[in-house]
Amino acid sequence: MACSSSVRPFSPDEAFRIVHQLQQPAVFLNMTKDWPVLQWTAEHLSHCLLEKRVKFRLGRKEETNTPLFETQCCFVSATLGQFLRWTEGRTRTEEVGPFCDYKKLEYWAYADYKYIAEVFEEQPSMFQDVRWSDFGFQGRDGRDSTLWVGTEGANTPCHLDSYGCNLVLQVQGRKRWRLFPPEDSSKLYPTRIPYEESSVFSRVDVLNPDLDRFKDFSAAREHCVTLLPGQVLFVPRHWWHFVESVDPVTVSVNSWIELDVDDEARISEAVTRAVVCAFKTAPSEDNADDWLNPTETGVTSHSENMQYLNLALSSFSQRHFPSSKHLPHLSRHALPSKRHVTGQILPQNPPPPLPFGPHLIPVNCPLPESRGETCKRTRKCAIARQKTEKDVGFLEGAGQCTSVVICDGGKEDREGADEELVHVTLSTNDLLDCLLHPDVMNRVTELLVQRHTGARTTAQD
User: Which domain of life is it from (predicted)?
Assistant: First the structure.
C-alpha cells in the first residue's frame, strides 16, 4: 500500500538522530507539509502585524570586492506593509514611509533574524505554527526561532556561528546558500571586526572576491544550494555561510540549536570580547571605525569581560569534571564533545549510516566542470590557481630560497625584484585579525583550561 503523502519521511527520533549525526549541510524534504508557518508569507505577516514596526537593513546593489557589513548599512524602522509597497515600486511617502529615501532599483533590504517571541509578543498563539518538535526537539516552537524577510539581492555577509548549529525553514521565495567547511577557515580570512558575539566574519566578498588580496580563497570548497519553500536546511556547527535572496520577496524561519555542550567556544568568545574591547577602546588614530556591530548592546568593561571569562572556565570544569580531584592533562582532542541536549555524553560507537535519498539531500561541493553555472567566482578562482601553480613552479625550479613579502594592496613581490617594495603599516584591526585567528584562539583556550583546572586541582589537594 502506498504511503500517505501527509506522513513525514522521518519520525522525531529519527530526525533528531540524523541532525546530531550530520557533519555536512543537508536539506530535509517533506518534513513540514502540515506546518501552519508555511502560510507566513510577507503579505500574511503584514496583515497580522498591522502597524507594528520592525527594523530593516538596506544595502546598495553594487558589485564590490569587499563585504558589506552591518556597520556600513542604512537602517529604517517600518511596517511590513510599507516594506511590501516599496518592493512593488511605489515611492509616495504616505505609502512607503521611511523607504521613500531609497530607490528600489538601487537598494536591497531585509529584516534580519527578528525573534518571533518579540515580534508576536501580543499574539503568542502564532508560536505554535512552528513545529521543531517534528525534528525531535520537544517543546521548541516559534518562541525559539527567528524571522527573516527580505528582497531580491539582500544578503548576509559570509560568517560562521561560534555556538551550535542551525535549522532553516524556507517559507516564501528562494534563498541561495553558499557554505564552506570549518577546515577552510584560513581560506576565508576570518576577522572579528566588526565585533559580534558568536559571529566570526570573512573579509572576502564571496560573490566577487579580490583574489589578489585573498588568493587562498580560490581553494575554498564551496557548497551551494538554493532553498525552496517547505524545505529545511541543516547548517552544522562552525560551517561558514553566505546567504542571498534570489526572489522579489523572501521569508524564512531559523532556529539556532546547541547540540553539543560547547564550553570551549564560550571560553574563546570570552577571550575575544576581552581582547577586542581592550584594543578598540584604547585611544588611537586608527580606532575611529565603527567596530561594534549594531546587534551588540554596547561595550563592556574589562572587569565585566574577565568575570565572563572566569564564569566560562568554571562552567567548563564543573560540566566536564564535576567531582574529580585530580584532573588529567587536557588537550582539544581529549575533551568530550558529542553530547545529547540534556548534557549526557553519547556513545562513541560508529553511528548507523545516514538515510540520504529522496527526503534528505546532502549539500555537496560542485564538480569543477559544473561550478561555472553556480559560482560567479569560478573563472577568477581558476586563474588564481593557475597563477599560484606557476609561481610555485618558478620558486621550486629556481633551486634557491626566495623570500616573499607583502606589498601595498596585498599583492606579492619577491625580494630582489626591480620594483621598489612598499612597506605596509599594520593597523589595530590587522593585529586583532592575527591575535584572534581561530587557530590561535583554539590554543589559547587549551592553555586557559589547563591553567584553570590545574589551579583547581591544587586548591582541592
Answer: Eukaryota
